[in-house]
Amino acid sequence: MNRRRFTLAAAATLAAAQLPFASSAYAQAIATLKMMIPANPGGGWDQTGRALAAAMQSAKAVGSVQFDNKGGAAGTIGLTQFINAQKGDPNAVLMGGMVMVGGIVLNKSPVNLTMVTPLARLTSEYLVVVVPANSPHKTMADLVAAFKADPGKVSWHGGSAGGSDHILAGLIAKAVGGDPAKVNYVAAKGGGDQVANIVGGHVTAGIAGLGEFAEHIKGGRMRALAVSAPAKQDGVPALKEQGIDVVLGNWRGIFGAPGITTAQRDALVNAVKAGTESAAWKESLAKYGWEPVFLAGDAYKAFVEEDTKRITGILESLGLKK
Known about the structure:
With 322 residues, the protein is of the alpha/beta class. The protein has 2 domains: 3-124 and 250-317, 3-Layer(aba) Sandwich (D-Maltodextrin-Binding Protein, domain 2); 126-242, D-Maltodextrin-Binding Protein, domain 2. It contains 11 helices and 10 strands. Strands 1, 2, 3, 4, 5, 6, 7, 8, 9 and 10 form a 10-stranded mixed sheet that branches. Helix 2 (44-58) links the parallel strand 1 and strand 2 (62-69). 48% of the residues are buried.
């Protein structure tokens, strides 16, 4: 474990230890957990939700898990359905994260994360910029040069508008002296759709979590140009190492239904925490390159509130907020 990973893990452990429900013990396993994944199959929320569910089952914190994938509008279609259908349900959970926060802000969504119950922040992941394997852009410098020459001809393909992928494209444009508002950003319908568009050469470049594209990079179907980490990861050079002063991590977390009691919230947190302490979860962290940043309950609620303010500021500074 390198120093950065150790520091993040240690901080997460300390934060968890300060919570009244930090023990992984739980009174009774949840018979059936209903998990809303507000995205199509194949993307980061889907990977995280299903990995967490498997980990919770391996820890015997839950019995069966029912999944409901409902993609669209940066997760707010699924969020709306969850709010309307699951109020007061102590066995219902929703995946979410930074992408949803950005989408809510950018699209002035009538629903937001104050309407659900924050349970726990789970992971953080750095993003990777890729191009199709046969792209003429061999380096990040090539891609930047093309963007500066004609921004409209360079299409950046990522998740929902206003999400972490969109924000990274805007931050890169700003860092190289371009106009973030001129970024030709193409939002994907889902993880599988995005992969097909990149591999097929229908877009200039793609952005997603490193874990989402790892197998395609290793298989030679995509060429990785840069990662949004402070330093090189998995052999991919950081943006900062290439003269682009941008670092950005994408967090993901889990929420409970509106209107549940504090005791019901804590029971869900305990079940989630039991899952994150399992060997199965640690294997998923290693497989996808996720950083463990567990933070639960009121501390997580405060984090979401602060991150909403931070992302609002970023979108405004990039001229992307409507």
